Amino acid sequence: MKLLAVVMLVLLAGGWVVLNRIGGAKYRSVTKLRMEGIRLKKLVPPMLFILERLKLMSRFPLFFFKIQRSIQKLNGQRHSAEMTLLYVGEMMGYSWLLLVTGCLLTVAMGDAAGLAIGGAMAVLLPAAMIKDMHGKVVKRDHDILMELPELLNKIVLLVGAGETVQKAIIRCVEQKKHETGHPLYRELIKMTDDLEGGYSFQQSFENFSKRCAVQEVSIFTTTVLLNFRRGGNDFAMALTDLSRVLWEKRKAITRTRGEQASSKLIFPMVVIFMIVIVLVGTPAFMMMNL
Questions:
Q1: Could you give the CA distance from residue 217 to residue 245 in angstroms, rounded to a whole number?
Q2: Using CA atoms, how far apart are residues 14 and 1, in angstroms rounded to an integer?
Q3: 102 contacts 120 by C-beta, under 8 angstroms
Q4: Which end of the chain is more exposed for a tag (fewer CB within 10 A), N or C?
Q5: Cα–Cα distance between 65 and 79 in angstroms, integer?
Q6: What is the C-alpha to C-alpha distance for residues 87 and 40, in angstroms, rounded to an integer?
Q7: How far apart are CA 249 and CA 142, in angstroms?
Q8: What span, in angstroms and rounded, lies between the C-alpha atoms of 168 and 155?
Q9: Which residue spans traverse the membrane (predicted)?
């Protein structure tokens, strides 16, 4: 088993060096992109070379599409294809690093457990990374849905007070301009920047809806674009009805988050319960033995 680990270690390390020299320069530009959470950029070029040679993107298009869709939501549409390659290369880099670590453990200890653990972690860690990214996307969508009803209420009040739709939205955005970390207001700030840059209200609002990529935001955008020229009571009533629906969805999300938080507390409570049993039961057993 030690000999197998040595052979695998030589193949993994030597293969990375060779591939880095052959095709590494081609993907240097991809590694220069800034993307949150990427830490192994130096290991990525050979992994991308393997991706291209094996034509994995054309063989598993649905897998790569889902990753790119999530990256677009979290990082925007600009350079989303390159960021997808970078993220997949990062996953492959972690797998390579774990396999190398498993081989080193097997060589050092002379036990096959190191290689088995390294191989298992090389499969599980990329799956965990995809799950983590999916969780971030779901949290982002929920954050948008949680804030959208309040935004609607403010717009309805401002329009009812005689403000135009465009100015009402801009005023709401200006009040929250410091909240650049919130996904909804981050996209709304980009929308106002598009308006200042010469885009029409309709075009900038449609781009805002595409960037959010949330069904409720698309309904909100369609409602506004269909009614903002009319204004008056019809527009206010349409937004009020939509706001009522969104408040119900906000309540459902709040209940779901509460249930998730309570379920996360079950394991710590079980551990504490077991510790209490041990602390209380150990003296009793010791007294019975005496």
A1: 12
A2: 20
A3: no
A4: C
A5: 14
A6: 10
A7: 10
A8: 6
A9: 85-107, 113-130, 265-286
Q: CB within 8 A of 209, min separation 6: which ones?
A: 217, 218, 220, 221
Long-range CB pairs of 261-265 (<8 Å, 24+ gap) are none
Residue 45 in 3-state DSSP? helix
Coil/strand/helix, residue 113: helix
Can you spell out the DSSP letters for 42-75?
A: GGHHHHHHHHHHHTHHHHSHHHHHHHHHHHHHHH
Residue 286 in tokens: 């010791």
Provide the pLDDT confidence category of residue 172 given band limits of 50, 70 and 90.
Answer: confident
- Estimate the crossing angle of helix 113-160 against helix 165-175, to 10 degrees: 130
Residues 185-210 as b or e (16 or more Cβ within 10 Å = b): bbbbbbbbebbeeeeebeebbbbbbe
- Amino acid identity of residue 157, one-letter, is L
Res 30: pLDDT: 81
Q: Tokens 């298009």 correspond to what residue? A: 61
